Amino acid sequence: MKTTNKWMKSMVVTTALSFGLMSGGTFAQAAGMDKEKGENVKAEQAVHSKLEHEREKETHVKPEAPEQSKAEENQHQAEKQQEEPKRQAEEKANSAKPDVKPNTEKKAEKPQKAKNKRVNSQASEHASETAVQHANENSAVLSSAPTEETPEQPEVPGEESEVVTESNEAEAAADYAYGADSASTANPEGQDFYIGKLGYGSKVQFDMTTGGGIFFNSDRAEEATYLYGYWFLSGMQIAPDGISPIEWGENQAALALETYEAMKSVYGTKVRPVIFIDVEPAYTGMNSYDYANNQLIYSAFIDYLEKYGGGVKPGTYSSPWSWEVSMGEYTPNTPGAYWVAYYPMEVPTDLTMDNSEWLEFPGTDERAEIWQYFGGENDYNVAWMLP
Questions:
Q1: Structural domains in the chain?
Q2: Cα dihedral value 22, 23, 29, 35, nearest 10
Q3: Average pLDDT value over all residues in the chain
Q4: Residues 6+ apart with CB under 8 A from 84
């Protein structure tokens, strides 16, 4: 009986196990419970259903998910801690940088405002015929001195760049001085300086009792901040008989210096220590193409002032055409005190050094300090430097 019972129990157990494996019932669920505990249970039977296979996959994945999530979180925390000092350093650096955007916007205004500047007019090749017709009447004048623009400096990191304001631009415009000469009307651009005619040859034309003369406007002289005189240099055609070109140049320089002192006694400290030598072809001026004599007269005038002027220095006024006709290829010698006449077809709208018609003085590589840009009855001038 015992043997029979054992055999019966064995059959029952075997049958139950076989049925459970084939049906995917209680045994499979038990395996799932074991997997949740972290045990690795392998499916050994190929007869499992598809449902059991999917359930088996789920039991493999579920225990790994919490550990993987935890690892990712720890890694994220570590990266965050490493990046925090870097982020704080970047914020600190950004807070230290100046906000230069307003300055950039301000600087952008400058080219825009340049559109409002006067436009260059068409230039004539030579001084106008009016200048020749009035050669003995209209002379050069010198003006106040602005300094040339300082080149823009590169911005230094951490420093604010200079803001360009309208007041800055007004100061830049004020760097140019405006004035008139001879018997002209007031320059509409301003009356910073005036240059009056002292005389020519052996003729004095300034009258100290009236403070004026035929080509010396006392009203302009009174209004101006600075005052100059010019001498219309005469050639040998009106020189006294028997005089040499050098003596004729020295005699004119001596008379010009005497007349300058008379002008200074009337107008005082506003008179600048310069006498401009007006070189133009005319009957009372230089004789056309008489180069040798004209050059000797001109150089003798300069030598006399440098020797006896007591600080009063010579300057030179002429136009490219007038200089060529009177002096040829001779090089003038009054550096720092050049006044050039060059008339466009109409009054220029740009009276700055950017205007190509503001020339280098003939025979030099020096931009003239004063430009007479309009002649005839109204001799108007502009200067970037005051000699």
A1: 1-94 (no CATH), 124-149+164-383 (3.20.20.80)
A2: 30
A3: 72
A4: none
